[in-house]
Specification:
The protein has 200 residues and is of the alpha+beta class. 44% of the residues lie in helices and 6% in strands. Bound molecules: zinc ion (ZN).
Length: 200
Amino acid sequence: MAVLSHPLSGHRRLVLLLATAGGIVLVLAAVVTLAVTLTFSSFATSVRPAGIFLPTEEDGLIASDTALSVDDDSHPALARLDPALLDALRAAQAAAEADGIRFDITSGWRSVDLQRQLLADAVHTYGSEDVARQYVATPDASSHVTGQAVDIGTLDAQLWIIEHGRAWGLCQTYANERWHFERATEPGDECPEPKLDARG
Ligand SMILES: [Zn+2]
């Protein structure tokens, strides 16, 4: 047999073994690198491992140092809003501009995953799911997830919309969230009484 007629010396066998092991390590490293790259790339939605979630713009996350205007619809938080809500916001913003008011959108459409994380963060912050639910709805109840709500950043803009928004159907829908607006009435009609909080 070939092996018997040309036996590998112990040294050669060791070298061969090390080379093979080295090759396997390189292949494993490449596989791990590829997996990590895919996980944290923009394709993350389909290959997210359980337990790890890093929200991105694709989830509707707006960075805390970013102020989106109603025209920044390249951002999914705006692009995935109900078009009727976005139209109403733009028309209202045009009118508010005359009063020197700018709407800074701090939150709009959100993915289910982002909403779930916000609720988990709120539970952590308030130390109780019951209190957290007063501020953050569950993913299946949130009007942000369906693209039917926006949060507006500055007090003067919030007060402006509370006073004038109904002309475009824009209403504050939760009494404890003066930043949260939805299209909740027909343009020009009265807004419904805000609900007490996000528990509905
Ligand atoms: Zn909101």
